[in-house]
Amino acid sequence: MLLDGKKLLITGVLTDDSIAFSVAKVAQEAGAEIVLTGVGRGLRLTERVAKRLPTTPDVLELDINDTEHVEAVRAEVMRRWGKVDGVLHSIGFMPEDALGGNFLNSPWESVAFGLQTSTYSLKALAVGLLEPMKAAGAASVVTLTFDGRFAWPIYDWMGVAKAGLEATTRYLARDLGPFGIRVNAVSAGPIRTMAGKSIPGFDEISDTWTKRAPLGWEMTDATPVGQMCCFLLSDWAAMTTGEMIHVDGGYHAMGTDIRR
Known about the structure:
The protein is α/β, with parallel strands linked by helices. Helices cover about 40% and strands about 15% of the residues. Strand 2, helix 2 (about 40-50) and strand 3 (about 60) form a beta-alpha-beta unit. The longest helix has 21 residues, at about 110-130. It is globular and about 50 Å long. The N and C termini lie far apart (about 45 Å).
C-alpha cells in the first residue's frame, strides 16, 4: 500500500467536502495512520467529521498562529509516534474586507492577518514539526494552493497570499532538503467546499472551469486532489520537492478561447 505504516498529521478537516478530508480518507485507505488538527469553534466540527473517516482519528488542537499550540502538537506527535512522516498544510483565511473586489481598499490589518494565517503558517508548521520529521529520516510536507501566478476575479489578497505560499514552498524545499524533507504544493481546481463557497463571487471562477478544462472538472469531488497529495506524501515522490503540481483537469494549460 502506498502509505503503509506512514504517520501523518493533517490540518484543515472541517467538513467532509473539504480537500483535507479527501486527503485523510485516501491516506487511511492507503495504509497511513493519521491525526487531525482543529482550532477554536472548528475543533468540534473536526471531531464530528472525523467519525466519517474509515477509522476515526484523534484530533489535536492547533492554532497555527500560537507558538504554544505548535509546540504542544510537536510534543504530542513525538510522544505518540516518535516521528512524523508527512504533514498536510491545509490552512488559510483572509478577512472578508480583503476579498471580493476590495483589493485597493483592504486595510493592512486584515491583509497582515490573512498573510500570517495563509502563508507564513506553512513555515510555522514545517519548522514547528521539524524534530519529528527529522526523526523519520525522510518526510514530506504538502500544501494546497490556487495558482498564485494569476490575478483571479474576487480572490484579491488571498491570491497574493497563495503566491507567497508557493514561494514559501520553494524556500522551505531549499532549506529543509538537507534533512531529507520534501516540500511541495498542489494547485487544485475549484471545489465547492465550505471555504470556497464563503468567498464572495466564487461562481465567477468555478462556472468557467468545466468548459475550459480539457478533462472536465467535478466541483464536488476532491478525491483526485487527495490522491495527488497522498502520492506526494509517499516514498514514490522521493526526489520531488519545490514543485507545484496542478490537479485541475488541465485548466491551467489552456490559453484564452479566441472563438469568443
